[in-house]
Amino acid sequence: MRDPIYRRRRFQPEIIELCVPWYVTYRLSYRDLVEMMAERGVVISHSTILRWGQRYVPEFEKRWSRAKPVHPSWRVDETAVSVRGGYRYLYRAVDKYGRTVDSLLCADRGEYSARDFFTKALKTHYPRWPTKVNLDGNAASHRALRVLRKENLNWQSVEIRSRRYLNNIVEQDHRAIKRRCAPMLAMKSFRTAAITLAGVELAHRIRKRQFTVGSRGPHQCSSLKHAWALALVCNDNAAVARKTSRRPIFDRECTRTHQQVCACRQRPRSKRSNPFFVSET
Predict the structure, then answer these.
(1) Alpha carbon distance 224, 238 (integer Å)
(2) Which residues are 211's β-sheet partners?
(3) Strand pairing category for 132-134 and 73-83
(4) Residue 275 DSSP code
(5) Distance of CA 201 to the CA centre of its chain
(6) What is the pLDDT of residue 256?
(7) Is the pTM of this model over 0.85?
């Protein structure tokens, strides 16, 4: 049974589930993935992989919803990300053991951005409340928490600290995100950057084994590919069709793209058209 999220898609689900996790996990560009797929007999466009990421990263986040609880002591910090020639700020929080709490891309470092991040992080882990929150020297974050304390009395029981050495763990955790963003150069729109960074954060949490996969936990997965296959099993009312990891079949007839390429080769080639790059509509 075909997963409902892949209906009316030209390519097989196994190819999509291979390209998108590879892009958000490893330091690969879209054109690197195009060449890697071409070696396996799959002709694809880099813009198609881009659209796959924008479409399926939010869906993958829903499938990876069985997250382990984090420690109630949070360390919060923000890091700059280049988006369309300017800097945007990625708010991130980890607990005292380095497990990711939440992240949010904001346009600035103002008070409203900090409030949006704390509200999102609390909603993600509700009903668990933090007992301690350690902040950096950004005054807007402190003002945001003071406003939240007036709006919600539960925030008054949270201890607010500002000790630089306690935030070393979150600053070191920024490295994994910044390292992955380096080959991207600069993202072209805020919406694309937000979804892409959400996928990078998801892959980072998977590497830190913050999710429960199956009945025996993440250690039953022999590889990252196996873990993704288990997490992406369809959980709707229909019967679960893909209970085990299936190996993608990269033969010359695995998609309709190869048939289109062969048909184009039989016709006189035009200068304006390139039959070897077929973009999904």
Answers:
(1) 26
(2) 67
(3) parallel
(4) T
(5) 5
(6) 38
(7) no
